[in-house]
Amino acid sequence: MKNWVEELRSATLKAIADESRRTALRRAVESYTSNKGKALSRLPHLSDLALDVRRIKETSVERMEDLVKEASEAIADCNGHAHIVRNAQEARKIVSEIVGEHKLVVKSKSLTCEEIELREYLEDKARCRILETDLGEFIIQLRGEKPTHIINPSIHVPREEVAKTFSRLAGRKISGDVEALVSFARSYLRDYFIKADVGISGANAVAAQTGTIFVVENEGNARFSTNAPPVHVCVVGFEKVVPALNHAFKVVEVLPAYATGVLMSSYVSMITGPSKTADIEKKLVYGVHGPKELHVVFLDNGRSEMAKHPVLKEALYCIKCGGCLYECPVYRVLSGTFGHNYFGGIGSVWTAYTRGFEKALFAYMCTGCGRCRELCPLKIDTPRLVEALRGELCRLGFKHPKATLFFDNICLQGNPWGEPKALRGSLGC
Amino acid sequence: MSSYRTPELARSLISILKALNVDHVMLGKDELCCGSILLRLGLRSEALEVAQRTLDELARVQASTLVTHCPGCLRTFKLDYPELFDFKLSLEMVHSTQLILRCLDSKELSPVKIKAAYLDPCHLGRHLKVYDEPRKLLSLIPGLTIIEPPEKREASLCCGAGGGVKSCLEELSLTVAKELIEYFRLLGAEAVVTACPFCYYNLNEASRGALRIVDILQVVDASLRGVPVEKLG
Ligand code: SF4
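Above: inputs. Below: predicted complex with iron/sulfur cluster.
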């Protein structure tokens, strides 16, 4: 078995050699940066609002546990079911119990579901058929790959490759024209939304006071998956809970421009309890056109631990817009290799707490350039977090051997490379 | 960094300081690495040990100002050590470009005919917020045309050498640098001027002649001495 240092290096080399990945990334980055630029110039108030969101996050993270309890009670009050779970295993178990076996599930994109590997679990253990309905997720599900960006999971796949994948599924040739590809996905997935037994989603924010979950998207697939099936399960991390609706609205206002370069996302679904009516004789009945049952699973999975760390807790403020990834010079070269479910510098902290520190060694790929901090709407100081994380990694035995070597050399010769001391004095002055 | 990997930059700095009659001392062979690389790689207590020794050295030479060309060293002394270890250095700490600008007075400057893009080094720009002095300095050099890339100042791109990546994942550093060089080439720059030995070293290694990489010290030195940059030796 290779040691982690070699593994890190060979993963890097492999990613660097992948030209098609770089082509796709270049196209995506170009269109993202130009769209974001335009959106921000039309929404000049957004940078101040984002700092407001930061303050909301700071105070919410301080009382995360209480807010989750408050949200759970509010959800129960409107006949929804709230579940508070501590780790990935508990989360998978509870969702699996709600879903049942051999069910058809439509799923919208959710980093949190990805974090607990929910799809794989439901497929393997409960033998369910799960359809990813976000276009990017759909593409990589068909290709048997892993997401490489938190907002645009198939960012590494160029259109030519998508055409090949869809043609295989259709059993006929689908052209590489982007519109044709989208239209194929639409017609393929349409029936499944109606037939599905359960819809699974994540959430971008939760207002504790009213128990309202906010789901932001552009495609309309999340709205479909959370609305058409009789049961909706939402898996959401503790850090997404803010005190009230007005706070959640702010999160939702800041997110779209930084996430996809639009002024506002096409759809924001606000869900407070299951679908209901009292139109016939004022008798309250649940499940009219929307789901009869709503389950919200609040996931801790390391978040409370993260909140205890004096430096690393800042990562919990992240609204997962993914902007820093497009803007990261290292991500532009490595894409999905620079991370594990969560990507880039900020993603290394998230990976450490949600998946284990030994999975977060990609933190050593960060150059600490700080571009992400300047371009992050919340000004999250990712380079500082990465350095603190590396400190933790060193304590846990993942000290980079170069670091040890440098220290020894500095002690002996005064410089990290172990060059003779005398050289330094030889420049003359 | 400069002493060992880019001695030409160290030589240029000394030559400039002499030309400007700046009273200076070098720590010479007693000089110690600033410890930045240790901090970046997570070795805090080791960095503290190194820092303590450098502070003693600095106290010994009784200077009023600490000047470094490496923005990483400057950041480490000026921002990181005070924040992490509550160190207060009583001397003033400046970047070479800041000191030169201050001491340049009305020194005669010869033309340096290059059309170059200025790259804000990450440590100097984003971390230390020194954006203007290097630009001001470059604007004083006759014959020099500076192109401002769209991604500049707070949004400037990274050369790929920071955070210990140059040492731990060399190929990654070089690939990031190559992307940057391509970016500058497409802008129509004939050269890139940087103000950091790490950028200078990494971009030179990655460029292999695709684009000229010079450091601001070389430009100033050449201008003060009236010789072309490539003749500086
Ligand atoms: S760190 Fe900032 S830019 Fe990056 S995903 Fe989080 S909120 Fe967005």
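The CA atoms of residues 207 and 244 of chain A lie 5 Å apart.
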